[in-house]
Amino acid sequence: MIVAAGVACPMQAHMAFADEAEACKAVRLSDLGWTDIALTNTTAELILGALGYEPSQTLLALNITFDSLRSGDIDVFLGNWRPVQDIDYKPYFDDGSVIPVATNLTGAKYTLAVPRYVHDAGLKSFDDLQRFADRLDHKIYGIEPGSNKPLLDMVEKKAHGLDGTWEVVESSEAAMLAQVQRAVETNAWIVFLGWQPHPMNVTMDMAYLAGGDAEFGPDFGGATVRTIVRKGYPEQCPNVTKLFNNLVFDIDYENAGMNMIMTDGLEAGDAAIKMLKANPQKLDAWLKDVQTLDGKPGLAAVKAELDIQ
């Protein structure tokens, strides 16, 4: 068969697609152990699996996530909270190790918080921390190592008038929230890292501290969340990248899904599929111009595989 210059024959096109499909079949996502990422990652996993891909999640600390994106060991991360991570991990963006592909959430926040009774008693700002150091046992409760850098830097620099006696307690989201719950049960004083979306905003009477602009940005740590991928991924795997470009959530959706996991005790997969079935219209936008692994229309395939009407 003779093929005109510049025109790919069907066999060549199929071989090129097959090569790309094989290289992109495994989609490796980072999981930080955060409930919001458990929901969004698992939602992505369900959709990717229905499209014929083989997604997987690996539990990593935040700093290891960025290192793994740089080394090519992880493909996708849905938890790039801005502006905090853009400051802390600026070199990775500057050298092109990570590529933003979408803002997947707006209206988020991320800063220090206290139970309402502590706020009402006078701890309303970062600048009030030192005044109540003894009542707080000189401790600030954070989450997993790698995610508390603004707090560690704040304590090291003795910002906001802090003396040298403060400790940032690093553990995990679940362990931190358990500590907060124990404190609330006895009206003990505690200051911790809080954020939205998260069921803590619904299940707990809490307040965010003012004055943390230098550490977390203005508007009580007002934030957006981006999806980032490793260098070269958009060119190598354009179909998967298109899905992640489309995969945009909202505060109400994430709060509802996370509440199913944390309050109702559902597994992340069960919560994700329940949210998808309750909001089938989201798939129309998420799967626009997205195909299955073997090149068929993605929306119909996903709805059929997941039994979504």
Automatic annotation (TrEMBL):
Keyword match Transport: no
Keyword presence, Glycoprotein: no
The entry's keywords: Plasmid
Gene3D superfamilies referenced in this protein's UniProt entry, alphabetically: Glycine betaine-binding periplasmic protein, domain 2, Periplasmic binding protein-like II
GO cellular component: ATP-binding cassette (ABC) transporter complex; periplasmic space
Molecular function GO labels: choline binding; transmembrane transporter activity
One Gene Ontology term from the biological process aspect of the record: choline transport
ABC-type glycine betaine transport system substrate-binding domain mapped to chain residues: 26-277
Pfam family, one: OpuAC
NCBIfam families given in the database record: ABC_choline_bnd
Protein name stated in the entry: Choline ABC transporter substrate-binding protein
Organism (species): Shinella sumterensis
Taxonomic placement: Bacteria, Pseudomonadati, Pseudomonadota, Alphaproteobacteria, Hyphomicrobiales
